[in-house]
Amino acid sequence: MKSLWSDEAAAAFNDDELGMRVYSSKLLGFDENLVMHGGGNTSVKATTEDFFGRTVEVLYVKGSGWDLKTIEKAGFSALKLQDTQMLAECATLSDPDMTQQLRALLLDPSAPSPSVEAILHATLPSKFIDHTHTDAIVTLSNNPQAARILKEVFPDCLILPYVMPGFILSKQVSDAIKRDDPKDYKGIILMHHGVFTYSDEAKVAYESMIELVSRAEAYITEYGSTLAATAEHDVDLLDLARIRNAVSLARGEAQLGVLDRSPDAQGYSMLETVADISSRGPITPDHVIRTKRIPVIIDTRPAKGVPEIDRYVTGYKQYFEENQTAQLQMLDPAPRVGIWRSAGSIAFGSSLRECSIISDIARHTRHAVQIGESIGGWQALPAEDIFALEYWVLEQAKLGKSTARKKQHQGKVAIVSGACSGIGNATCEALAAEGAVVVGLDINPEVVSQLGCDGTLGLECDLTNSKAIAVAVDHVISLYGGLDIVVCNAGIFKAGERIEEHTELTWNQILDINLTATQRLMTATIPYLKWGIAPSILIVGSRNYVAPGPGAAAYSVSKAGITQLARVAALELAADGIRVNIVHPDAVFDTALWTEETLARSAARYDISVEEYKTKNLLGKTITAANVGRLLSTMASDVFTATTGAQIPIDGGNDRVI
Fold it and tell me: Given a cut of 60, is residue 238 above it in pLDDT?
């Protein structure tokens, strides 16, 4: 490990001590081998002025919810230093009481909750305190011979056995430094947990961390191996959808199933010992909040129902029963990590962010486990210690149960065709706003730039090409693990050709895109929808299916055709739990079909203004693409859980239709 410290870069932060704290914290957070996803914490002791202008000594400590990689000054909570130090003198202090007292000591009551290790930071006498959960040192401390190895590698460090984070850990360190002056040591190693370094200078504290981690890496290089098993295999995506379905049912809500099929993930999954070495527990207890204690091991070709998930749920319930206390309520028993034989590692989560965190932890874990085995084996903490952290009241409060309304499509995967503009684009936005991961398909390459943020992804796809559709659908499954919602919206409109004048090109093109492309997309997605969560197919029809106009024969026939297609699909797919419903928009003028010239020409036919033409319906409403998108999103939700085969107009009321 190399120091990233730059005196020139540090000078830009050197306006005060907190500025230097921000700089060196970001250096630690930049390297995920030191700090991952909000883990680790840092602090600095300084002086500031209180509300009355008095100079007070404070501890600026990382606040909850902030990540060292991106932390700013606002991410550090200022605590009254001396009063925080006094908390370490308490004989006992419950963690809820500790949290309450720490909040009471904040100079700014609106500041983020301070780290649960704030008391520990306060008791260490140095100005700058750095704490990481570095892979290399944790790997050594998980060794059966950890006491000997750590004493050999870190003779100048204070080495302490594992205890629960929070007040218990703060008390342990406080008592230890009363016996041993921490300034006699380069750092403090906490078994199965991490390392603290400290100094009155930010650079020294940071570079001490780098040096200690480098020593651990050097020991691993000398006595072990950093080479990981690798393999490359094809994956059956329908099996992936089955697995994702089983995990979603176990958790009681839709889950993404993000597959890591990298060579090292597949190599790890093929190890003969993987069921043993991956199921001993997390490499550091903090990970249990994200990953559960152990992953689920899934056979190469899971059978219908994926019995491994059922066995995992049973095992988790037993783990809870063996370790619970009376006041605890069991969390959901579904796995967060799956080791899928020959295929790789799967992260299960309600959002892409959650899956990304789980995937990263799984990647670091498999590397650390294999390294640990190469230097004499690795062992996790006993299950009861992991349970204590998984059900720790402070961790539950930190990740907490949100009081916000649960989004209707959280954890679901949707495909929308014709997504580059108009109704398709608005539908993508509506579904994503309700928590779905949405993939928009369109022949227009601009769909890639139109989508691509806030849970959406754009793919260029020719919907008249069955192979292109199959490739796109398979790509979606490979990214997210399954499929729940399909919106068939792609279509074109050409008017002005009477039947006797219809060209073969116009007729074939309109029917191919509006009707046959819908059938192609349904055919490609139905096998995956059968394993979806509350799966739904939505067809965007048109008022023309029931109230056609002259000069639009091909368009009207195509919309009548997909209406009939949807009705048959509703009959065929109900037994599989797939709902099929249709919306019939009309006069949606904020789409690419309607230009200013087209609107003016149409309004002139009725001798009214454009604005009057836009509201020429019974309710006098202007219909927008967003109106249609929100309706489609609602129809895909549980609000319509008992509805299939329905045809719903969204046209402001049309007397010809009614």
Answer: yes
